[in-house]
Amino acid sequence: MKTWSETAEVQPLASRIITNSIQKDRLSHAYLLQGERGTGKEAVALLLSKALFCSSRTGVEPCQECHECKRIESGNHPDIHWIEPDGQSIRKEQIEHLQKEFSYSGVESEQKVYVIKSAETMTINASNRLLKFLEEPSKKATAILMTENSSSIIPTIRSRCQTIDFKPLNPQAFQEQLIEHDVSRSNAVLMSALTNNLDEAIAWSTDEWFAQARKLMVQLIETFSSHQDDVFLFIHQKWLPHFKERKQQERGLDLLLLGFKDILYYHIGKEDDLAVFAIDDIRIENLVMFFSQGKLLDILNKLLDAKRKLKQNVNPTLVMEELTIQIQG
């Protein structure tokens, strides 16, 4: 999404709210963009930044060609500051550094923008620091916070931002996009269930690590159903060595969610909605015989709880061991 007109096709509400504010010169001093990963939050943050700095803007549309637009696109504009998690969280020191930067005059103008990615990962101290910053807004400073989970952001920060909701992308349309990029239909269905980001989905579809991750997910579910005594061995010898990093661990739980959801869908006659298994796959027929609908609902809830614990930095080995006991119970 390089223009507001393109954005309007994918996120009409977000586009309308921001472009109306640009036209009326009534932009908020702080925005909270909330929605699933890949729904266009970062593209909108870039567009809004360009609209503020572009020297040749036509109406609401930045020109994309001027020096300002090109530097923003490349991430090299001196008056636009991006903050991302340092490890698993955004720390107080990062916000303090931002405040120090903003105490100076703009390098080329008085306008400044700061963008905070994954704002839900701010520590309490970082949140309190940012709150003080938001309570004393500069007329020329614009804050853009992005999050997948606004409920994890303290209410006092949310109340000082204009919240803009990003709707999930249409999965069928996204699948067709992937197929146009030579992704197989079965892979397109799986990718659309995992991400809304086109580049990410295309990369995963040819990634050997991801292919092995998908294979391990199916093997683990089958081990739960047919070789329960071997599950802990499988977790320690195969699962944990493959899913080493935090994002990989989250991706593993996402795949397990889809796998168990497929079994539930097969149970209730929603075979057309399967993401991992094929309709004629004998494995899913066997799994349906083992897992009851009630058990599957309980497993899905336990998986969501495990995802929350990973977000809270609980040790991933402990998370998987506890999850294993719960699924076996």
From TrEMBL:
The keyword Transferase applies. Residues 238-327 form the DNA polymerase III delta subunit C-terminal domain. One of its GO terms (molecular function) is 3'-5' exonuclease activity. One of its GO terms (cellular component) is DNA polymerase III complex. Keywords: DNA replication, DNA-directed DNA polymerase, Nucleotidyltransferase, Transferase. SUPFAM superfamilies: P-loop containing nucleoside triphosphate hydrolases. GO terms for biological process: DNA-templated DNA replication. This is DNA polymerase III subunit delta'. It comes from Lentibacillus amyloliquefaciens.
